[in-house]
Amino acid sequence: MLGRCPTGKRPHYTRKDAKNAAKRHKGGRRPIPYTCDECGLWHIGKPPPALARGEIARDEIRQHRYDRRRVLGEDA
Ligand SMILES: [Zn+2]
Question: From the CA of 11, how far away is ligand 1's center (Å)?
């Protein structure tokens, strides 16, 4: 069923929607859009550690299907 994700995060159907949601985020570090391995849709979340360490560029994120536990490890 669309609109439900096992992770409990709000799904976005396009990268653009996810980016717009990230822009509306208030406070703290802006979340990044990423594709979800559970539902295949887009979510926004904290940047993965590799991004924070400067090992990858923000623009590279979309080309990786990040394991959500890496992306959201701090929330788990
Ligand atoms: Zn999902």
Answer: 6
19 lies in a domain?
Answer: yes
pLDDT in tens, 25-48: 888 778 888 888 788 899 998 766
Contact 42, 36 (CB under 8 A): yes
Query: From ligand 1's centre to the CA of 56, what distance in Å?
Result: 23
Domain contains 22 = yes
The CA distance from 3 to 52, in Å, is 30
Domain that holds residue 39: 15-75
Q: How far apart, in whole angstroms, are the C-alpha atoms of residue 58 and residue 5?
A: 24
